[in-house]
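New to this. Help decode the following:
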Amino acid sequence: MGTNDGNGDRQGMGDTERAVQDAFAHFVRHAVDAARDEHDWSITQVAERSGVGRSTIFRWLSGDWLDHPKLPKVRAFCAALGLPLGAALRALTPLTSKTPPPEVPAAAAMEVLLIAVRDRFNDPHTTSAEKEHILTILRRLGRRTTSRAG
């Protein structure tokens, strides 16, 4: 596995580094999409609210970064969007041959969706009927014990 020395040479990038970039890009894409859907925020607004530069967010979205994202920026991004830092860190954690591959993109997407549901439920503009609908669906999902697939 090659290393990326930060000088712009991506030829030495190994599969693990590429997988990490792809997983983090997927996480950031879901987060930005949720911010747009839930709050009508553009990438510029996400950048302003988080203090992370637009160009950095675009690099994260494309998975095209040379240096591993810095923790303070990742923390600020997550805080501004109300996301758990752990979801971002899981996407940024390289896998070893001894580590079973987790469902990072699916887990990150699920966390973003759960946060969006929580925010919708706590929004004072959400009607009582909508809140009851959310609760009904969550109760139904919570009681399911078997898969209906197959």
User: Anything to note?
Assistant: The mean pLDDT is 79. Residues 30 and 110 are 9 Å apart (CA to CA).
